[in-house]
Write a structure and sequence with these properties.
A hairpin with a 5-residue loop joins strand 4 and strand 5 (135-136). The protein is 32% helix and 17% strand. It is elongated and about 55 Å long. It has two domains: 1-32 and 80-121 and 166-240, Rossmann fold (3-Layer(aba) Sandwich); 35-75 and 124-160, SIR2/SIRT2 'Small Domain'. It contains nine helices and nine strands. Helix 1 packs across helix 9. It has 240 residues and is an alpha/beta fold. It has a six-stranded parallel beta sheet, with helices on both faces.
Amino acid sequence: MNTETAKLKEILQNSDNIVFFGGAGVSTESGIPDFRSADGLYNKSYKHPPETILSHSFFIENTEEFYRFYKEKMLYPDAKPNDAHKALAKLEELGKVKAVITQNVDGLHTMAGSKNVLELHGSALRNICMSCKECYPIDTIIQSEGIPFCTCGGIIKPDVVLYEEGLNHIIMSKATKAICEAEVLIVGGTSLNVYPAAGMVNYYTGNKLILINKSKTSFDKYADLIVRENIGITLDTAVN
């Protein structure tokens, strides 16, 4: 165990008000690629930039093309929780983690057993008819040919926050409150480049800001502990 992980383990053992804030890097060990690394989704070549395809206006104007990309690049129904997800679920079970705030839409934190999961960008596991608001599982999207339609005839839209759409105010409020009240804030697997979500870290006023990320972030200068290691191994080692 390296020095940073040993320090993290000590902090976890002596704290019972921990909040975790995570991004795409948390799920890469589950086989879900991230967005901004060298091999990430946003560094691939497509007919349209991914940011454009994953926007509200593109969804409305080019729904079939949106779903072609979305089903091929954004859905990973066979992905399973990794050691990071499991460690956080265990910490919640022990009464230490009070909230898991995630920018991911894969649902893996909930699948791992975490109960208080605040999904800032929604969930690909939920899909809602734009007309009658009927809910559909991910299988409906995967099995559909072209655009998925509701039995009422309405278009089904993933319950995820697209570019040009605002975050859910209730979820934002709960997440902000959790961060403000946290004794320890662990930020992991995120470049902290996506706003307004990344800006929520600014609400933390404690002295135990921990960053677990392989690359540097703009918040490094504020961190009380930085771990430049694999997040799954790090959390598993620190928790078990």
